[in-house]
Amino acid sequence: MSRVLIIGAGGVGGVVTHKCAQATDVFTDICLASRTMAKCDRIARQLKRPIQTARVDADVPANVVRLIRRFKPDVVVNVALPYQDLSIMEACLATGTDYLDTANYEPPEKAKFEYRWQWAFRKRYEKAGLMALLGCGFDPGVSNVFCAYARKHCFDEIHTVDILDCNAGSHGHPFATNFNPEINIREISQRGKYWESGAWHDTAPLSVHQTFDFPDIGPREMYLMYHEELESLVRNIKGLRRIRFWMTFGEQYLTYLRVLQNVGLTRIDPVDYEGHKVVPLKFLKNLLPEPSSLGPNYTGKTNIGCLIEGLKNGRRRRVYLYNVCDHAACYREVKAQAISYTTGVPAAIGAILMVNKVWRRAGVHNVEEFDPDPFMEQLTRRGLPWVVREPRRGEYRIR
Ligand SMILES: NC(=O)c1ccc[n+]([C@@H]2O[C@H](COP(=O)([O-])OP(=O)(O)OC[C@H]3O[C@@H](n4cnc5c(N)ncnc54)[C@H](OP(=O)(O)O)[C@@H]3O)[C@@H](O)[C@H]2O)c1
Question: Which domains does the chain have, with CATH numbers?
Answer without folding.
Answer: 2-134 (3.40.50.720), 142-334+385-389 (3.30.360.10)
